[in-house]
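Hey,
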Amino acid sequence: MKKFNSLLTMFAAVVIGFTSCVDGNDNPTPPVVPGEDDVLRVESNITSNTTWETGKTYVLGGRIAVTSGNTLTIQPGVIVKGEVGSGSNATALIIARGAKIDAQGTATSPIIFTTVADEIAPGQIASPNLEPDLSGLWGGLIVLGNAKASLAGDVTETQIEGIPPSDTNGLYGGSDDADNSGVLKYISIRHGGANIGEGNEINGLTLGGVGSGTVIENVEVIANQDDGIEWFGGAVSVKNALVWNAGDDGLDTDQAWSGTMDNFIVLCGSETDHALEIDGPEGSFNAAHTLKNGTVKGNNVAELGDFRDGARGTFENIYFFNFANPADTDGRGDFSLSGDKTLATFADGSLKFANLEITLAEGVELSAVFKNGTAAHATSVAAGENTVGADKTAFASTWSWAAAAGAISDL
């Protein structure tokens, strides 16, 4: 009933007459409805350097791309709202290869990406009308770059998932691992993950071939129908990330991403599949990434982690709790290596684990959760006595909805 009521709110919000549009030269056209000139509608791709200003709300009227050679600057406190839609009508903001985003919110004035059904206004942190588990109401934020990715057939570029092949702004990949797609700081992305086709949803934050010159810090993704954050190759690093109520995976890595995720929190929701899904390379190019200093709270359904298809990387200083007994959930609630390729990378040291801690459900053995020999790198600890995990002070209630809602108070 809670989600049904929220959906009624969503449809009511769709009929609101949002005003004005941006012409790509920082010049909003005159508002259609007097008195609403702080709500600006964006209908077409951004083809010149453009600034979205503090105190204003920008409504994405479709799939909007910042095209190559151009920079979109988003000032602190801006709210970006995507129209409701799925399939070819799914809304999203795409930073195409060769373009940049300069979205630097602050600890007291974050930049919020959400749905048009959300009644949130500049200066607010929590939605006044939507629950933090309502997903799929718009697309998400997609950043694409020229860094290397391990792609099937050893091609150097491909189309990002969630964007139709007809839109060439969805291409990513190349040879420049130092590529710079801009800056994301103090960002909250909410209620996204619209489905454009069977098994083809948009992630909250998608990073495709993004280079190490890009800065991403202090980001949260809330109630996304697909993954919270997904990396497709690239070399970008991320610091201080929180995912709450992902519909599929919390953090998902693919195609030989080679950066570092440092200080993260995953709060599994009722539909979360894996807290961590780690995939191996798809072509001959190999690289490894690092996930460290993380806290993962389960939901009695999700798996802690699934490492697949020759996964590589280092995973250290991660604390897990509130997961179910795998024996009671048909094998859910475990930390596993899937397939011979992954068993081989674990055996040869290309896949490494260190300092994994967990508070086990009563009567559960460590080896029943950490499968395939990974229990050698894990320790059982009592609740509240973990010595590793995330530093939750990075997620202040002045910018993070999860913190303001008390969702991280027990970490």
